Amino acid sequence: MKTGPPHVTMLATPGMDHLIPLAELAKRLASRHGATATLITFASTASATQRALLASLPPSVASRPLPPVDLSDLPRDADIETLMSEECARSLPALTRMLSELRETARLVAFVADQFGMDAFDAARDSGVRTRCLFVPMNLHVLSLVLRLPDLAASVSGEFRDLAEPDRSNPSYMVMVHLAKRYREADAILVNSFHAVEPEVAQVLRQPEPGRPPVYPIGPLIRQSGAIPPSSPPRAACQEWLDRQPARSVIFVSFGSAGALPKEQMHQLALGLELSGQRFLWVVRSPSDEGTLCDNYYNAAESNKDPFAYLPEGFLERTKDVGLLVQSWAPQTQVLAHMATGGFLTHCGWNSTLESLVHGVPMLAWPLFAEQRLNAVMLAWPLFPELSNDATTCSAIDATSVPYK
């Protein structure tokens, strides 16, 4: 039997929204429990942003990339869910070897995979890792829905759109049903949420259910504002500009590491900000018309073209006294923690939502894809219960009462 500290291996499927909370979990296991960890990533997402995050990890948390796999036979417009699940499935032989090697050198006590890496449980089992946990970087509401999905798939005939909005003819539908069935193979489900923000569903999931693993809300796991070096050019520029603004006077505009607007919406947002006269800090990315969501998702925070070229003519000059525009990426937790920030126009990705809650910044919801519409409705419900039937409405919520300021 191996000696030394307990070691946990974590598989992060593509997306900074998966990697960031897993990295924070690894750091907490190290600082609070004396464990070591290895973060395993996919070669398809070796972006500069990801490399910077992995380089910032403490010595107790290592990282290893899986070798590339060929996905060229998949359709060019394949959904994100299909791409991530297929890349994971094709990486299983390499992952099995990697886990077996780690077992030779470390006291490997557990394997953790996020929701799109459930097939990796096969590699963990084949390499002899006994404890296998699912990490859900979304909220408890989404988890409760996905846990119910296999039953819905079996009991509801025809299209879900006959009942409500979801569409089971979407190519990613069977991927999600397959993954949801495997959720129950986990020894435990770890969720990046906490009781205060979802008390009702937390209470339900706290109760044991036959055949369902225990659910543990372990959030909020967010990247700390000091994780980016102070000398980082985007951090320095944002810090210097925010330091010159009055308290709570700036609205921060960002649509996450993969979010981008169509050109027309981007244009209208720019005009709206200009006409409002409001101070703003806007993270601008190339519009989504220039490619697919997959392009943005797999190259997080890196626009391939100059995004400023898509703004209204003269916009930069006319707003230079009230706004700061940064290309592709900004130190979000630092911006939200700054006293000059008074609001957040957000896509309602769960990482961004948690960061805004932790720092007590009110949010204006502009959901784009994935579970973001559900998040927006959940957050707006205390003020606007009528929005339960309109997941696309943008609404302001005041998060300053959350006790994590």
From TrEMBL:
Keyword Repeat: no
Entry keyword Secreted: no
GO molecular function: UDP-glycosyltransferase activity
Pfam families per record: UDPGT
InterPro entries assigned to the protein according to its UniProt record, in alphabetical order: UDP_glucos_trans, UDP_glycos_trans_CS
This protein's UniProt keywords: Glycosyltransferase, Transferase
Entry-linked SUPFAM superfamilies: UDP-Glycosyltransferase/glycogen phosphorylase
Alphabetized Gene3D superfamilies for the sequence: Glycogen Phosphorylase B
EC number: 2.4.1.-
Superkingdom per UniProt: Eukaryota
Family listed: Belongs to the UDP-glycosyltransferase family.
Name of the molecule in the record: Glycosyltransferase
Native source species: Miscanthus lutarioriparius
Lineage: Eukaryota, Viridiplantae, Streptophyta, Embryophyta, Tracheophyta
